[in-house]
């Protein structure tokens, strides 16, 4: 077992252990914090596939996070008001079922990534950053100006959505759902890295010319990675909305894109468990420092500066040392 | 005589006022090593980029494997069987030697399969790994399979470049200074290796190492200021007065 695996196992144990301990000592707020970590880490896992593996610096992942959130908000709001989404040409009703909402969130955000990716992946470098940012902002302003689903005020959902066989209102059970989603995404990410696709994508980040010279298309590789990445972040958005029982245009804001990127950079770009470490540290700082001063972001900024300057591998890199290529 | 595998006709490319490539016509016949030599700045890299697809010529055509490939992108030419090695290694430096070789095998396979698989293990025992390991063994890098590429010496990187090209089982090799950065011994070994390789697929060789060029080349083309001033056998080129003046004179 190499050091990175030990660090990963420790992170997972911590993320599982803290809420279990909070459950045993009846501290539901701590469980909610851990749930936030799991969900935001999931959003980070999504971004890390584009950013870490594909080298695609997307500053617009809030677009997918928001689409996932609104997929949940729109479906659940129709279900709670007993009004169908549409009646013709066929009847489409809302739903309070998590699995259905997740599926819709995954598909909707994948579709959005398909369109955004097809256009923005024709550019690179700073232009790619700007165009993804622009798409995110477009959706942000669209959600503000769309009165049907709350506009600026957002949408409140009174009851958390249901999952067959579980009581989702119980914090520890909802945490378990989110943790399972995160674990599934991490497993998939690990598989992806080892796969032929992952090998080619990773090479395309390091040497695009080489990949083209062996007959593979870099655009196609990045495009598929971007869609997968967007879909995973979209799923996180649906869970995030369910956690808060609230969706608002803020989920689309560029600050949200920035936060997701901060999780990845803090934790370690391209490291499998980087987003988990990053989101955990972020939420811990927000909770601890935020209690002391409302200006805790100053300290976050300082920390981020230190990581970028002195620990390029982020927290995981600091603890586990240099990345070892897989055997 | 058999048809050439690769041919350029009237290739011309300018960068502003600089004519980097001027009416270049050459061909590569089955079983031969055709060396292109010329002083620095003669337009060798521009020529290679146009043959492989990185640069669009202003005028002229490139045909390969019986097709006009002038307007095909790099990856399509690679799929037709054009394998290139880079002067400055364009390898995935963070990856292992085996991963780099596997990428080549993947590309050769991808010509049929399209997108590489999302699941499954790229390095698991199987076709890909066999192809990659066989190529590494041939260039003598098998024992370094697990080494991270950035830890290789310059000469070893050249060997890996050649190994990646081998995994493609190409119809023609385009090699941009495969001996650069190698010691005398490494250079001799590579020369011996390329000597045997020409029977598998012809090689268009751009090289500065004159010993290697004279030992290997069936034909030579001399490129000066973007023009081919002479093409012929080693003896013919040695005897050519223009070439002596333009190029060999400086070296000898």
Describe this protein's structure.
The complex is a heterodimer of chains A (327) and B (252). Chain A has 327 residues and is mainly α. Chain A has a domain at 30-252. Chain A has helices at residues 3-24, 28-53, 62-80, 98-120, 125-144, 171-194, 196-206, 208-213, 218-244, 254-267, 274-292, 297-310, 314-320; strands spanning 155-156, 246-247. A two-stranded antiparallel sheet of chain A has the order 1-2. Chain B folds into 2 domains: 1-81 and 205-252, P-loop containing nucleotide triphosphate hydrolases (Rossmann fold, 3-Layer(aba) Sandwich); 83-169, P-loop containing nucleotide triphosphate hydrolases (Rossmann fold, 3-Layer(aba) Sandwich), CATH 3.40.50. Helix content of chain B is 39%, strand content 23%. In chain B, the strands form 2 sheets. Chain B has a 6-stranded mixed β-sheet with strand order 6-7-8-3-9-10, sandwiched between helices. A 4-stranded antiparallel β-sheet of chain B has the order 2-1-4-5, covered by helices on one side. The mean pLDDT of chain B is 90. The chains are: A mainly alpha (327), B alpha/beta (252). The A-B interface holds A 191-192, 194-200, 202-203, 206-207, 209-217, 220-221, 224, 323, 325-327 and B 52-54, 73-76, 78-79, 83-84, 86, 90-96, 99-100, 102-104, 106-108, 110-111, 115-123, 128, 146, 148, 164, 167-168.
Mean pLDDT of chain A: 94
Radius of gyration of chain A: 19 Å
Residues in helices of chain A, as a percent range = over 70%
Helix content of chain B: 25-40%
CATH architecture of the largest domain in chain B: 3-Layer(aba) Sandwich
Oligomer status:
heterodimer
**CATH fold call of the largest domain in chain B:** Rossmann fold
| Amount of beta strand of chain A | under 5%
Task: Extract low-pLDDT stretches of chain B.
Answer: none
The description of the largest β-sheet of chain B is: 6 strands, mixed
């Amino acid at each position: 077992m190499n050091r990175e695996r030990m660090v990963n196992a420790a992170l997972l144990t911590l993320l599982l252990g803290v809420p279990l301990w909070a459950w045993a000592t009846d501290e539901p707020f701590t469980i909610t914090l851990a749930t936030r970590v799991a969900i935001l880490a999931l959003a980070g896992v999504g971004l890390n596939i584009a950013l870490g593996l594909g080298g695609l610096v997307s500053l617009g992942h809030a677009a997918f996070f928001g689409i996932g959130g609104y997929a949940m908000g729109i479906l659940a709001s129709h279900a709670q008001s007993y009004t169908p989404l549409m009646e013709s040409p066929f009847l489409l009703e809302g739903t309070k079922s998590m699995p259905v909402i997740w599926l819709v969130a995954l598909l909707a955000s994948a579709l959005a990534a398909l369109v955004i990716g097809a256009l923005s992946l024709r550019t690179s470098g700073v232009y790619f950053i700007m165009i993804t940012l622009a798409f995110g902002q477009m959706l942000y302003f669209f959600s503000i100006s769309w009165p049907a689903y709350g506009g600026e005020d957002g949408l409140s959902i009174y009851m958390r959505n249901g999952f067959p066989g579980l009581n989702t209102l119980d914090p520890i059970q909802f945490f378990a759902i989110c943790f399972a989603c995160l674990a599934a995404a991490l497993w998939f990410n690990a598989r992806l890295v080892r796969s032929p696709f992952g090998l080619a994508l990773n090479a395309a980040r390091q040497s695009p010319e080489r990949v083209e010279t062996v007959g593979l298309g870099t655009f196609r590789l990045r495009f598929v990675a971007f869609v997968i990445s967007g879909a995973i972040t979209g799923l996180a958005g649906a869970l995030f909305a369910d956690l808060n029982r609230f969706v608002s245009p803020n989920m689309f804001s560029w600050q949200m894109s920035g936060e997701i990127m901060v999780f990845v950079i803090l934790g370690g770009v391209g490291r499998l468990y980087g987003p988990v470490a990053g989101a955990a540290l972020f939420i811990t700082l927000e909770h601890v420092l935020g209690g002391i001063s409302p200006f805790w972001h100053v300290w976050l900024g300082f920390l981020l500066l230190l990581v970028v300057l002195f620990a390029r591998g982020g927290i995981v890199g600091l603890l586990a040392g240099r990345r070892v290529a897989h055997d | 005589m058999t048809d050439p595998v690769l041919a350029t006709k009237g290739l011309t490319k300018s960068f502003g006022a600089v004519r980097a490539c001027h009416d270049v016509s050459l061909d590569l016949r089955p079983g031969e090593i055709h060396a292109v030599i010329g002083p620095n700045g003669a337009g060798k890299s521009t020529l290679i980029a146009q043959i492989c697809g990185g640069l669009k010529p202003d005028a002229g055509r490139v045909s390969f494997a019986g097709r006009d490939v002038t307007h095909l992108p790099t990856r399509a030419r690679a799929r037709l069987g054009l394998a290139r090695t880079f002067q400055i290694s364009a390898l995935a430096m963070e990856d292992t030697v085996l991963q780099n070789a596997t990428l080549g095998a993947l590309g050769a396979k991808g010509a049929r399969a399209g997108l590489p698989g999302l699941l499954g293990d790229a390095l698991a025992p199987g076709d890909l790994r066999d192809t990659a390991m066989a190529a590494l063994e041939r260039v003598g890098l098998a024992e370094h399979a697990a080494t991270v590429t950035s830890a290789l010496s310059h000469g070893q990187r050249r060997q890996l470049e050649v190994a990646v090209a081998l995994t493609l089982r190409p119809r023609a090799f385009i090699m941009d200074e495969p001996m650069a950065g190698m010691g005398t011994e490494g250079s001799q070994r590579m020369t011996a290796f390329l000597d045997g390789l020409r029977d598998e697929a012809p090689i268009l060789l751009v090289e500065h190492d004159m010993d290697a060029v004279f030992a290997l080349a069936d034909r030579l083309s001399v490129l000066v200021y973007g023009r081919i001033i002479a093409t012929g056998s080693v003896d013919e080129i040695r005897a050519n007065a223009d070439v002596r003046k333009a190029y060999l004179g400086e070296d000898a």
